[in-house]
Write a structure and sequence with these properties.
six-stranded mixed sheet; 6 helices; globular; binds 2-acetamido-2-deoxy-beta-D-glucopyranose; Thyroglobulin_1_sf; Thyroglobulin_1
Length: 324
């Protein structure tokens, strides 16, 4: 009695099995159709890869990007310039972001997507940059030589949170920021050297020299750039808007951001008003959350190892002097 219906089972279950298989296949295809790059909004993706694999290319360069890690800052700047030109709003621009200057140029990237040591204008103006793409020499003509790409091995991110947030617990804040850099920016924890806090200022120190960086390791330049864009409410991650960090349920609202870049070699500027080797170069502007980002290049004084700021320009000055 039980055997009868039991024997009948295979025939109805075979189409059922096929149906399930079909569903699985279409489900799979649907998932594949949803072919986007989680770590970079500024890409176009399609199933052109081997075996119909989802493959994503950076806008502006057509460079194939690896969507399981960060895209290099050079390619991101290139994509940003492209999207500005075409007027497409690929990344929600913040209402207040108006300023394009030295920090926003259409860079030349090498075969790995890194900045080329020498960058030139469409005209014949050239200058040398460091590994974060910031100018570190005077401008010259096409004869200017940049022998090597000088590495930015220390990045200090200086944030001020809203005073109304009150005070954060330092160890909780530290843990939360370390988690952010590890999980969201995929930066190996050993490159986040320290988190300092004295209300309302938070400092994040990233350190990574060439010998410490293994193949496949995220570069601190890229992690810092993704962070900067998050702070400005222009997240590069799919499905994100900006920085949404909570410390014990209390949101971290950033008011102002300064980013200091320290190169392995002192920058080479001849401007007399600056003491040797020290300069500030401004890059960016206002965020959705009212954060001005000032970018500085500084070199450390060998003996003390301390920073010395010579020039910081903020938003107001920037307008008067757009090209540094
Ligand atoms: C497709 O992408 C969207 C947004 O990135 C995501 O919410 C959704 O879960 C994805 N669907 C599939 C089937 O992967
Ligand atoms: C690049 O050239 C344009 C003119 O073509 C000039 O306005 C701009 O300031 C130059 N940018 C830099 C960074 O030299
Ligand atoms: C901060 O939080 C840690 C645990 O997360 C706790 O051990 C410590 O006492 C707290 N410090 C203060 C000052 O509240
Ligand atoms: C790299 O950093 C480590 C630790 O900070 C340091 O000991 C080492 O000398 C550095 N190497 C170079 C080549 O600067
Ligand atoms: C993409 O990046 C991940 C993480 O760095 C790495 O494991 C993987 O091998 C990379 N894939 C390709 C195709 O380079």
């Amino acid at each position: 009695m039980a055997g009868g219906p039991g024997l009948e089972l295979p025939s109805p279950s075979l189409p059922l099995f096929l149906l399930l298989l079909l569903a699985a296949v279409t489900g799979h295809t649907a998932a594949q159709d949803n072919c986007t790059c989680p770590t970079n909004k500024m890409t176009t993706c399609s199933q052109d890869g081997p075996g119909g694999r989802c493959q994503c290319r950076a806008l502006g360069s057509d460079f194939e990007v690896n969507c399981s890690t960060l895209t290099s800052k050079c390619l991101l700047l290139k994509a940003r310039m492209r999207s500005h030109k075409s007027g497409r709003k690929l990344v929600r621009p913040s209402e207040h972001a108006l300023v394009d200057n030295d920090g926003l140029y259409d860079p030349e990237c090498d075969h790995e997507g890194r900045f080329k040591a020498r960058q030139c204008n469409q005209t014949s103006v050239c200058w040398c940059v460091n590994s974060v793409g910031v100018r570190r020499t005077d401008k010259g003509d096409l004869n200017l030589r940049c022998d090597e790409l000088v590495r930015t091995h220390h990045i200090l991110i200086d944030l001020r949170h809203r005073p109304s947030s009150g005070s954060f617990n330092h160890s909780d804040l530290d843990a939360e920021l370390r988690r952010l850099f590890r999980e969201r920016y995929r930066l190996h924890p050993r490159f986040l050297a320290a988190v300092h806090y004295e209300q309302p200022t938070i400092q994040i120190e990233l350190r990574q020299n060439a010998s410490q960086k293994a193949p496949g390791d995220v570069d601190i330049a890229d992690a810092a750039y993704y962070f900067e864009r998050d702070v400005k409410g222009e997240s590069l991650f799919q499905g994100r808007q900006g920085l949404d960090v909570n410390v014990h349920g209390k949101p971290l609202l950033v008011e102002r951001t300064l980013i200091y870049y320290l190169d392995e070699k002192p920058p080479q500027f001849s401007m007399k008003r600056l003491t040797s080797g020290l300069i500030a170069v401004i890059v960016v502007v206002v965020a959705a959350i009212v954060a001005g980002v000032v970018v500085l290049v500084i070199s450390n004084r060998r003996k003390t190892g301390k920073y010395k700021k010579v020039e910081i320009k903020e938003l107001g000055e920037l307008r008067k002097q757009p090209s540094l």
